[in-house]
Give the backbone structure.
Amino acid sequence: QVQLVESGGGLVQAGGSLRLSCAASGRTFTIKKMGWYRQAPGKEREFVASIIWSGSSTNVADSVKGRFTISRDNAKDTMYLQMSSLKPEDTAIYYCNADRHDYTTVWGQGTQVTVSS
Protein backbone atom coordinates (compact mmCIF):
# COMPACT_ATOMS: atom_id res chain seq x y z
CA GLN A 1 0.00 0.00 0.00
CA VAL A 2 0.91 3.68 -0.25
CA GLN A 3 0.28 6.27 2.44
CA LEU A 4 0.28 10.02 1.86
CA VAL A 5 0.66 12.76 4.47
CA GLU A 6 0.27 16.44 3.59
CA SER A 7 1.77 19.31 5.58
CA GLY A 8 2.52 22.99 5.23
CA GLY A 9 -0.94 24.49 5.21
CA GLY A 10 -1.88 27.50 7.27
CA LEU A 11 -3.13 31.06 7.31
CA VAL A 12 -1.50 33.61 5.03
CA GLN A 13 -2.34 37.08 3.80
CA ALA A 14 -3.22 37.71 0.18
CA GLY A 15 -0.09 38.03 -1.91
CA GLY A 16 1.84 35.72 0.38
CA SER A 17 3.37 32.30 -0.20
CA LEU A 18 3.15 28.81 1.21
CA ARG A 19 4.80 25.52 0.38
CA LEU A 20 2.82 22.33 0.78
CA SER A 21 4.49 18.95 1.12
CA CYS A 22 3.13 15.48 0.49
CA ALA A 23 5.23 12.67 1.90
CA ALA A 24 4.65 9.22 0.46
CA SER A 25 5.48 5.99 2.24
CA GLY A 26 5.00 2.29 1.70
CA ARG A 27 5.18 0.83 -1.80
CA THR A 28 6.15 4.11 -3.44
CA PHE A 29 7.68 2.29 -6.40
CA THR A 30 4.09 1.60 -7.50
CA ILE A 31 3.36 5.32 -7.99
CA LYS A 32 2.94 6.51 -11.57
CA LYS A 33 1.77 10.05 -11.05
CA MET A 34 1.05 12.36 -8.12
CA GLY A 35 -1.12 15.42 -7.93
CA TRP A 36 -2.68 18.18 -5.88
CA TYR A 37 -6.39 18.87 -5.68
CA ARG A 38 -8.33 21.36 -3.60
CA GLN A 39 -11.82 21.71 -2.28
CA ALA A 40 -13.31 24.99 -1.14
CA PRO A 41 -16.40 25.12 1.10
CA GLY A 42 -19.52 24.33 -0.89
CA LYS A 43 -17.57 23.48 -4.03
CA GLU A 44 -16.43 20.31 -5.73
CA ARG A 45 -12.89 19.10 -5.50
CA GLU A 46 -10.83 20.52 -8.35
CA PHE A 47 -7.53 19.66 -9.98
CA VAL A 48 -4.57 21.92 -9.20
CA ALA A 49 -1.42 20.26 -10.54
CA SER A 50 0.18 16.90 -11.25
CA ILE A 51 3.63 15.47 -11.88
CA ILE A 52 4.88 12.22 -13.34
CA TRP A 53 6.69 10.41 -10.55
CA SER A 54 9.55 8.98 -12.59
CA GLY A 55 9.90 11.90 -14.97
CA SER A 56 9.58 15.65 -14.99
CA SER A 57 6.37 16.21 -16.91
CA THR A 58 3.92 18.46 -15.07
CA ASN A 59 0.43 19.76 -15.60
CA VAL A 60 -0.96 22.86 -13.89
CA ALA A 61 -4.51 24.21 -13.85
CA ASP A 62 -5.04 27.48 -15.65
CA SER A 63 -6.40 29.06 -12.48
CA VAL A 64 -3.03 28.74 -10.74
CA LYS A 65 -0.62 28.74 -13.67
CA GLY A 66 2.22 31.19 -13.12
CA ARG A 67 1.57 31.26 -9.36
CA PHE A 68 1.88 27.61 -8.27
CA THR A 69 4.77 25.25 -9.01
CA ILE A 70 4.70 21.49 -8.50
CA SER A 71 7.86 19.51 -7.91
CA ARG A 72 9.04 16.29 -6.31
CA ASP A 73 12.08 14.84 -4.61
CA ASN A 74 12.22 11.15 -5.34
CA ALA A 75 15.03 10.59 -2.84
CA LYS A 76 12.65 11.79 -0.12
CA ASP A 77 9.49 10.37 -1.71
CA THR A 78 7.99 13.82 -1.32
CA MET A 79 6.01 16.08 -3.62
CA TYR A 80 5.74 19.83 -3.15
CA LEU A 81 3.41 22.62 -4.17
CA GLN A 82 4.98 26.07 -4.01
CA MET A 83 2.19 28.61 -3.92
CA SER A 84 2.88 32.29 -4.52
CA SER A 85 0.77 35.41 -5.01
CA LEU A 86 -1.99 33.71 -3.06
CA LYS A 87 -5.54 35.00 -3.39
CA PRO A 88 -8.52 34.60 -1.07
CA GLU A 89 -10.10 32.34 -3.69
CA ASP A 90 -7.22 29.90 -3.16
CA THR A 91 -8.65 29.15 0.27
CA ALA A 92 -9.45 25.44 0.40
CA ILE A 93 -8.44 22.10 1.78
CA TYR A 94 -5.57 20.85 -0.35
CA TYR A 95 -5.26 17.12 -0.97
CA CYS A 96 -2.49 15.16 -2.58
CA ASN A 97 -3.08 11.94 -4.43
CA ALA A 98 -1.10 9.19 -6.05
CA ASP A 99 -2.10 7.26 -9.12
CA ARG A 100 -0.54 3.82 -9.09
CA HIS A 101 0.44 1.54 -11.94
CA ASP A 102 -2.42 -0.80 -10.97
CA TYR A 103 -4.88 2.04 -11.73
CA THR A 104 -5.79 2.60 -8.08
CA THR A 105 -5.64 6.04 -6.45
CA VAL A 106 -4.58 6.93 -2.94
CA TRP A 107 -5.51 10.19 -1.19
CA GLY A 108 -3.99 12.06 1.70
CA GLN A 109 -6.02 13.50 4.55
CA GLY A 110 -5.75 17.10 3.35
CA THR A 111 -4.27 20.31 4.71
CA GLN A 112 -6.12 23.59 5.17
CA VAL A 113 -4.95 26.71 3.36
CA THR A 114 -6.62 29.98 4.29
CA VAL A 115 -5.82 33.22 2.49
CA SER A 116 -7.04 36.39 4.15
CA SER A 117 -7.78 39.55 2.22
The mean pLDDT is 96. The chain has no helices and eleven strands.
